[in-house]
Amino acid sequence: MTVDPIFKRLEMLTGTPAIKKLNQTKVIVFGVGGVGSWAADALVRSGIETLTIVDRHNVGPTNVNRQLQATCHNVGQPKADELKKRLELLNPNASITSLNEIYEPATAESFNLGQYDYILDCIDSINAKAELIRQAHASRVTLFSSMGAACKLDPTRIELGSLWSIKGCSLAKALRRRLRREGFEEEVQTVFSTETLPANEQTNDSSGFRKSVNGSAAHVTATFGMFLAGLVIQDIVSKTDPTSLLS
Prior knowledge:
By secondary structure, this protein is an alpha/beta fold. It is 34% helix and 17% strand.
């Protein structure tokens, strides 16, 4: 089995069968802002060659401090499309699909989640997160979810754990309340931070939903994204027989 040279250093850690398995794995990332953009980048650099990225928003000036694809030269352009351009530079053989759409209860049925092996939830909206978690479970697709990465400065406070046991994260608390109200209590693996800093302000997004707008830092949001990508990569590697011969 021949491995693309760009993955040779990773192959030294994982073995050839794991790289082949990574190449064959299908992942979808919902939300490609400060967390999701870095997760997508790490996935492609680690051998994922079929990736769908979903985000309805355009690049804004305040995105430049933490979102991988955002620059002072592409403000106003669709985030998903701009990230796709970046990812295709990393691996021309990768199949990257960018969807300038929103995932929410009203649009959930338009996404065929069952075609993917992994789902990364990097969405801000409680309604959308709850719907995605429930639909991923119904589709029997492995999902990893990001909790709040704003109002954080200390990356050493970032942890992995169950949604149901997180303490000190207001987003996790609200999400748990919503899911329990809907009768959902299945396991959800998350990335979260135990750090608590004061929120800055509240505003309404373009759809009229109440949305928090808080301070955020690249070294924290990017670490959240790397943790999420790591969960996918490590899960694939752990489930791959190192002696298998994949075509």
